[in-house]
Amino acid sequence: MKQSKPLRIIPLGGAGEIGKNMTAYEYGENILVVDAGIMFPTNDMLGIDYIIPDFQYLLKNRHKVRGLVITHGHEDHIGAVRHLIDQINVPIYATPLTLGLIEGKLARSGMDGKAQLIKVHAGEAVTIGPFRVEFVHVSHSIPDAVALGITTPAGLVVQTGDYKFDHTPVDGWPTDFGKLAEFGRRGVLALLADSTNADKPGWTPSEQVIKPALESVFREAEGRILVATFASLISRMQQVADVALEHGRKIAFVGTSMVENAKIARNLGYLDIPEPMIVPLEDALKMPPEEVVLLCTGSQGEPSSIMGRLSVGTNRAFDIQPGDTIVLSSHPIPGNEENVYRTINRLFRRGATVIYDPIAPVHVSGHASQEEMKLMLQLVKPKYLVPVHGELRHLHQHAKIGRELGIPAENTAIVENGQVIEFVDGEMRLGERIPGGWVFVDGSSVGTVNMDVLREREALARDGLVVVNLVLDTNTGKMLDEPEIITRGFVHPDDAADLIPAMSKRVARAVRSAEGDVRGVVKQVLKSYLFNETRRRPQIFVAVTEVKPQTAKTQWQDSIAA
Amino acid sequence: MKQSKPLRIIPLGGAGEIGKNMTAYEYGENILVVDAGIMFPTNDMLGIDYIIPDFQYLLKNRHKVRGLVITHGHEDHIGAVRHLIDQINVPIYATPLTLGLIEGKLARSGMDGKAQLIKVHAGEAVTIGPFRVEFVHVSHSIPDAVALGITTPAGLVVQTGDYKFDHTPVDGWPTDFGKLAEFGRRGVLALLADSTNADKPGWTPSEQVIKPALESVFREAEGRILVATFASLISRMQQVADVALEHGRKIAFVGTSMVENAKIARNLGYLDIPEPMIVPLEDALKMPPEEVVLLCTGSQGEPSSIMGRLSVGTNRAFDIQPGDTIVLSSHPIPGNEENVYRTINRLFRRGATVIYDPIAPVHVSGHASQEEMKLMLQLVKPKYLVPVHGELRHLHQHAKIGRELGIPAENTAIVENGQVIEFVDGEMRLGERIPGGWVFVDGSSVGTVNMDVLREREALARDGLVVVNLVLDTNTGKMLDEPEIITRGFVHPDDAADLIPAMSKRVARAVRSAEGDVRGVVKQVLKSYLFNETRRRPQIFVAVTEVKPQTAKTQWQDSIAA
Description:
CATH superfamily of the largest domain in chain A: Ribonuclease Z/Hydroxyacylglutathione hydrolase-like
Largest interface: A-B, 92 and 92 residues
Structural class of chain A: alpha/beta
CATH architecture of the largest domain in chain A: 4-Layer Sandwich
Number of domains of chain A: 3
Largest sheet of chain A: 8 strands, mixed
Strand order of the largest sheet of chain A: 7-6-5-3-2-1-19-20
Oligomer: homodimer
Distance between the termini of chain A: 72 Å
Helix content of chain A: 25-40%
């Protein structure tokens, strides 16, 4: 049977990572979107809060979009749901916990009740346009995560989402090996598979390895225990609660997202903590230190999180006290290492004992390592492999693993975001490249910052700024007053005070000798002079006000002192 | 015998790391300085090239400074020698290779012949004022590294420098266990020991583990091989050369520092490569790809290094070609992970195969892990332990290791840079805190940038900049022209174009209603308006020019477009 149209698969979004936060499946007049997550900015994205996928292709084809399927409830998969739904309000399909977390997020951003939420349990299937989507349970560091088996007119495509093959997961619900094997028997056209740990040999340890490490912390801690982790790491909450129960400590949840996610997960039955075990923070702070554990946000040292504020002494409700043991149950997000380690150093300085990996195995990855990737390939037996969820280096490594297992290079597509992959009559080919990068979110506004703006910020940040205000006589072209010169972020104020008279002299000379473009000449003169003096190239702004009279007075006011 | 004065030990410099780049030993009228290195800036030090220790205490006491002893030739131990010697020209004591590398660096910065360089071989001792300094060979990732046994009037102090206990080092010269044990028998007052890997359990593998990994790369590579590493990792050069010899590939050194350091190390006999094995780059580029290996700078992805330029296609002499295999034989410097991985991704994009740890063990740490730290403590048997060379978290972990080996907490000093530690009559106490942080080097100028300037850069980088130029009638206070408004690094130019008329209107209204401080009022109005519109707080500069006439014209010129 010949297929009439190509199936198009398009990875979208992600800062350096491919197909992590959003993927589109397009067949004729139908588009199915998988995931809508956010990414954290890299260090060179100055002033950016977070990044969302660039989905202008979806906006242009909004009439085609039939639904949004979410694989699991982590920020990098659900964080941009509100941005997408705000513009294209299609039904959202997800498992109960994922849906609960999305609902909570939408409510917090004032979009309560605006979305159509459709509950699908792992093991069930839904039909969305020409796509039949089967939800397959996978273990990950959050319960109720799924891989997707998407039957399309072009064939069966499997997208793993984030997964690991944990034989002893916290919730006792391992990855559905049988279903994946059944896909393999049915015949899989293409596998889009998580590449996060493609450069890690072996198997990722089970979440269970954390338990002995936590137990040893609880045995040795003489004061309070504070555990910091992602608010969406529901499995980790469960593990801490289990150990706390054994050691007779009560739990307080600290930080808005931690409190809310725990509530959602408990209500839906994904977090099993007896009611009397949980105490409000106010009560916990009054209890003997050895009887409580505080589950806090801030494992990445974010300045506004509980751990971030505790590390610099600006947390309102309580402070670090000697005898506190702090467990950072997470790994730094790539690029955020410096921030995390700085926070750890500060917590030590405040008298706490800080336990983190590799001091003790208090965290384990939620993603498959190389041997698990091989197992996935063996179970699913895809004709084509599309490594996704990783940086280019991970995709290449994943492709190499594929080759070792007999998937030839020509049956593997290593693409970047926005690259359309087409399947026609069982053959894969590359389509066009559409905009598929990311959009910056800065403050409340989305997309008003682009790379050019960031480059301007970078230039300002590199060597600072010099602003010159000139008042010239319209008729004679002569300066009517000393030029006003201010600097910011350029050199030490004392050194600037030394430089300004010399700059002023050079500006005056330049104005006298300039023919035509006064501003250009002044800028050029200052640029050379400052580079010679300081080897720096500040951004230089020259304002020229031309006036007729003999008197003019200029005064500066800046916002920094205010 | 009572000692008349206290021995004072002062760790200096280092961005977050303690006692890494410089340490001062002071007794009465005598100061001995150990090491003078640089640090790389952290991500939040915008526009900074590198950091040197703040040695104003030494400058104030320059008459006391008797000499500078260097433990080994890495940048973080010799990079600031020229800055120190430029101001306090004391004799420099070091082993032959270290001295050779210092000499080369001084020559490159035009200080040829200006320093007094005194050669001391490992195993020898020198007397510098009241200090007798014994040089003890240690293995590290550069040959000819030493620990120091410093006999002072207060007792024997041992400073390890950077070290590991490698039983099979590349140069066949292991750490001098015997000498360290002899110190232990003599009685050691205090040990200042490397804490870099204090959170790594076990032993650091021998440098030998790299050889099989390199051999497998050489066996499999079909085209050129490019190996990137630090130019000061002389041992790594030797290993690459050994494997290249076995596989019949010639070596070309690429990058100024790589070429020069290889020359120095070969001349001094620390790098054993037969002359015919080495070819100039021009020749290497003409040879069949499978017959050459290029040893390049840029293992940290520095934009100006060979690897940095190859990754973006701006290297002049040659480009990446399909079939190239690139080995990154180094670990990212903490905080630089993002930059390194971005470079790797770009090299993949250009068609190279990139091998890096953990893909293959092509790098190993040069620093002791926990079990080696224990061995050091067992050999030296110090009364007091001063963990140095690490962040606060590492020092705490090192202190814990000390406690496990019987050094009580009260005999351990965890201090920060600039904290004076005093020893009198065999007892340790904390002295005063002196300036001991770091000094920024930005462009050619040292120390003209301080934290305030960086905070200004950060503010500019966060949300950019809005500059307003107002021309007012001196008599009436009325605006004589539309206000000129420009933005940089704030919002997308299209959005700025939308915002400017609205800002202009609000400025005009503010000027009309303002009484007194026009500039302050305008600034405040814009601040609130822009925050409401964009949730951002750009830096706002308002210039007011007061003139008498009825005509005025203002034009802006900025330096960004140029």
